[in-house]
């Protein structure tokens, strides 16, 4: 059986199942490239990327370059004699000098059904936009942002309660399975590239903390998707009497109160019922400022909230 010498490039948790599947498979992972260690937490301690941890556990060489466009780095990779590169959420745009280095090119596992949701946060945006069919795409990389030819897509149905966090886990596993299928097809010279239809392309830009601020004038159904799509990061939030509350586990509830959007209609064991631009939304879990995530029932035992207060 034909086997490949694979250079793996990836950084976050999403890339780990793919790396582990390659290590367990018939091919040889010759080296792993990942982002440099980053400072984390209040202590600013250096923390390794999840891919680095997994690679070291597997006994693989790990490279963490700060610059990837140098001739020196290209020569370093060339010394591993890779047949192809597998890239999963590495976090940097590869220059032509690296894209053209492996004889079989560079293959990417992207967390959406391309051409939809090109960019850094495809899974979050798919949930925010209320997609019910989601998936991954194994694609041939080019110089664009997720614009290369499609090699093998795979889809699944998102459940109504899906969060970005839960979908990450499912799509990471699906990505690993789909990549192995794509490599088997490549061995048989049966992997046919299909150009993307650019007319159907949508973007999934990186999210930041400010994207979590709730606009209560929007319909409850839209906010329901947004809360789930921002869970676990950057999280949806709003302010009540100057204090920030983060929201989780939402449910759309019919409302005929006519109260202004953002009005707290009820605070009970069931959750916080908040008026929106259309219907109301029930939030079952919150994270108060300076506190931990908890059920609303647990919070209001010591911090009762009166109906009529307004989130902003």
Blueprint (SSEs and pairs):
Elements lengths: L4 E6 L5 H9 L3 E6 L4 E3 L4 E3 L2 H8 L4 E2 L7 H8 L5 E5 L7 H4 L6 E5 L11 H7 L4 E8 L9 E8 L6 H24 L32 H10 L6 E5 L2 E11 L10 E5 L2 E5 L4 E9 L5 E2 H7 L10
Parallel strand pairs: 1-2, 1-6, 2-5, 6-7
Antiparallel strand pairs: 3-4, 7-8, 8-9, 10-11, 11-14, 12-13, 13-14, 14-15
Helix pairs in contact: 1-6, 5-6, 5-7
Radius of gyration from the alpha-carbon trace, in angstroms: 22 Å
In CATH, the homologous superfamily of the largest domain goes by the name Formyl transferase, N-terminal domain
Q: Into how many domains do the coordinates divide?
A: 2
Q: DSSP strand (E) fraction?
A: 25-35%
Largest sheet geometry: 7 strands, mixed
Class per helix and strand makeup: alpha/beta
Element pattern in H and E = EHEEEHEHEHEHEEHHEEEEEEH
β-strand number: 15
The CATH class name of the largest domain reads: Alpha Beta
Helix content: 10-25%
Instruction: Give, in spatial order, the strands making up the sheet with the most strands.
Output: 5-2-1-6-7-8-9
Distance between the termini: 62 Å
Shape descriptor: elongated
Query: What is the overall number of helices?
Result: 8
- Overall average residue pLDDT: 97
- Please give the CATH architecture of the largest domain: 3-Layer(aba) Sandwich
Low-confidence stretches: none
CATH topology (level 3) name of the largest domain: Rossmann fold
